[in-house]
TrEMBL record:
Keywords: 2Fe-2S, Flavoprotein, Iron, Iron-sulfur, Metal-binding, Oxidoreductase. SUPFAM superfamilies: 2Fe-2S ferredoxin-like, Ferredoxin reductase-like, C-terminal NADP-linked domain, Riboflavin synthase domain-like. Residues 4-106 form the FAD-binding FR-type domain. Transmembrane segments: none annotated. The keyword Oxidoreductase applies. Pfam families: Fer2 (PF00111). Residues 233-315 form the 2Fe-2S ferredoxin-type domain. The lineage of its organism: Bacteria, Pseudomonadati, Pseudomonadota, Alphaproteobacteria, Hyphomicrobiales. This is PDR/VanB family oxidoreductase. The keyword DNA damage does not apply.
């Protein structure tokens, strides 16, 4: 699979959208329009000496002249946010790949519930723009410790009006997924934020017997399974019946690449969705945070996922 088009974009605006969140508006230096995208999409940003990092587009998808990303400074992170906060100002250049979307907003005019925590509100902000444009029926639960660290809060208040419910733990108001979702059995639910928030929403949906396929989540951090012991397995390529041995200490993505099958990849920790490929048979051990339960029946992320025994890949 070929790599996505990478563009050199210019920072047209750099400002703080919260005390620790840098908001960047990116434009092409010559072209008035950037590749189109839908709400929920993210871009891969290529950082010198750091690597590739993913950031959700948080502006209005109808605005085709620029991309808006919000970068939360993470002192404990892998260095990407620190580099961006330290090195970027208006006029700087960034290498950015065309948008990709693993968290799309469903079509239709049914009820939508958006639940975001902290920097996790960014893809939901784009969804709010789309829902307002559609005149959709929605509510946006925005969770943060306090207003100072809540990115885009003023913009979202103006955009959503009373449809925005703000839960600030410093003021003693906390999002209660059981109470807030009790009457939302027919809604499409989109959740993004800290793991404890997303996990609470998932648990509520499962406990209440809501249709699981109506729940859509996006996570920013890789699965942590301290006890996981990788085992060797075999991958079979459906198109040629070629068999590839995947040792316990190698990833399927690496073995495919060594065999001349180069899939697109970016994060290599199961969070970006770049390396997604199909499979036809096998007992797959899914270890990504991207695919839904339904998608997992036929798709896998070879940078982290493995199989028991063997897997037949749709390659
Ligand atoms: S490279 Fe990001 S999910 Fe595999």
């Amino acid at each position: 699979m070929a790599d996505r088009m990478i563009m050199k974009l210019k920072v047209a605006e750099a400002r703080y959208a919260a005390s620790n969140v840098l908001l960047l508006r990116l434009v092409h230096p010559r072209r008035p329009r950037l590749p189109a995208w839908d709400a929920g999409a993210h871009v891969d940003v290529h950082l010198p000496q750091i690597g590739v990092r993913q950031y959700s587009l948080c502006g209005d998808p109808a605005e085709t002249g620029s991309y808006l990303i919000a970068v939360k400074l993470d002192p404990e992170g892998r260095g990407g946010s620190h580099w961006l906060h330290s090195n970027l100002a208006e006029g700087s250049e960034l290498h950015v790949a065309a948008p990709r979307n693993h968290f799309p907003l469903a079509e239709g005019d049914g009820r939508v519930v958006l639940i975001g925590g902290g920097i996790g509100i960014t893809p939901l902000a784009a969804m709010a723009h789309t829902l307002v444009a559609r005149k959709g029926d929605f509510v946006f639960h925005y969770c943060a410790p306090d207003e100072a660290t809540a990115p885009l809060l003023a913009e979202l208040r103006e955009l959503c009006g009373e449809r925005l419910r703000v839960w600030l733990s410093s003021q003693g108001t906390r999002f209660d997924s059981t109470a807030s979702l009790a009457d939302e059995t027919a809604a499409e639910i989109y959740a993004c934020g800290p793991e404890r928030l997303t996990a609470a929403v998932v648990a509520t949906i499962l406990a209440a017997g809501h249709a699981e396929e109506r729940l859509h989540t996006e996570r920013f951090t890789a699965l942590t399974e301290a006890d996981f012991q990788p085992q060797a397995f075999e991958a079979v390529l459906a198109s040629s019946s070629r068999q590839l041995a995947v040792p316990a200490d190698r990833t399927l993505l690496d073995v495919l690449e060594e065999s001349g099958i180069v899939l697109e990849s970016s994060c290599k920790i199961g969070v970006c969705g770049a390396c997604e490929c199909g499979y036809l048979a096998g007992d797959v051990i899914h270890r990504d945070v991207v695919l839904s339960p339904g998608q997992r029946k036929r798709r896998l992320m070879p940078c982290v996922s493995r199989a028991r025994g063997h897997v037949t890949l749709d390659l």
